[in-house]
Amino acid sequence: MSSIRLAWLSLIRRPLSTTLALAAIALAVGGCGVLLRLYQLEQNRFSTIARGSDAIIGAKADGLDILLGALDAEGKYPGFLPYKLFETMQARASVRFEDGADVNQNYLKQVTPFLYCAKAGRFRVVATDSTIFSWPNYSLTFASGRFIDEPDQPGHVVLGAVVARRMNLKIGDTVDLTPWVGNTKTPVPQMGQSFTVSGVLNSTHSSWDRLLFTTIADGQKLIANEPSLSQHSIWGNNVLNYMLVDLPADGYGPIQNLINKRTVGQVVFTRAEKKHLRELTGTGQSIGTMISILVILLGGLAVASMLVARFDAMGVQLAVLRALGYSRFQVALALLSEGFLLGVAACAIGSMIDMATFPMMRWVLGSALPSPDIVSSTIWQSAPVWLAAVLATTASVFLPVIKLYNQDIHTSLRN
Length: 415
Known about the structure:
There is one protein chain. This protein is α+β, with helices and mostly antiparallel strands. It folds into two domains: 177 residues, no CATH class; 192 residues, no CATH class. It is built from 15 helices and 14 strands. The strands form three sheets. It has a six-stranded mixed β-barrel. It has a two-stranded antiparallel ribbon with strand order 2-12. A two-stranded antiparallel ribbon has the order 3-4. α2 packs across α12. The longest helix is centred in the last third of the chain and has 43 residues. The chain is elongated, with a radius of gyration of 31 Å.
């Protein structure tokens, strides 16, 4: 009889013990697999932040709120800036204040407007201009079509890669946009407007993929009749949420003095805020790593100790096999096969628990994890847990094997 056959007969000979061991290992595998996948996603939490401008100007708020609102398309609806401030900065005109100060803006390289004006389903619509497609760090290239920013051709929209894929849209199709201002809900039937798709962008693996882009003129028209606009803006619909700014090395100080001290806006520097974000999340990631390793280690030790106890109780059975003529090597191989089979079966069941549980956990955690449209997770990311479980179940057999080689079969049979 082969060692695999002996291992199989040993497993089914004790159905209760085998079932309990299998269930315990499968639950450990499933739980550790979910934990590992969630941790890997958490590490990628901010990988969707778009690479872009040197600085972002927004309404007075926390710097991280401005960074994530503009470059990661998340969070609540941001505050407003007057559109005239953008026009002044775009023209690089000198700004004279009531106290007599005269600020020159020749240091600016490029300024891009940014206004959340609507939603298409669950995707946000950004009103901007053609400069957003010319920033080298944005990598916003067209898979097809173009951005139509011409007064005589209103009502066009460009789709991010994820939007086009999820909504199954192409150039020439129409999409309904629902005006969005603040965090109040607007009835879709009364306010929805149809826009024509004029372009589709290549994937950037960032938040840009989840956005739609239209012109400033169309965006401001969309929000003009929004009932809640007056609650959020003193400038009517002549507003922006952000300005994305490209600066030379000597422009950081002047723009900070101008915006933070003399306007209703606030400028944050992208690199500094990203560094701040990494510092805030670094501790959590380190703790997450330690907890993941600890849980997997404890699970493996628990499995190993349980199987050691199981195999220790098989002393008489091993002695009987030796008395029937099986060599130490054959019996040892049967023990190793039993541990291996138990581990593989538990991994198969544990992976099903993982697949069933992970979507629910991801839904519960919500915005704490990156969007599944951009950062996906597969069951194969749990492979290290499976390997650890199989190694633990197999390694747990080594102590009984050592005892086997030191066993006196006559004494065992008499006892």
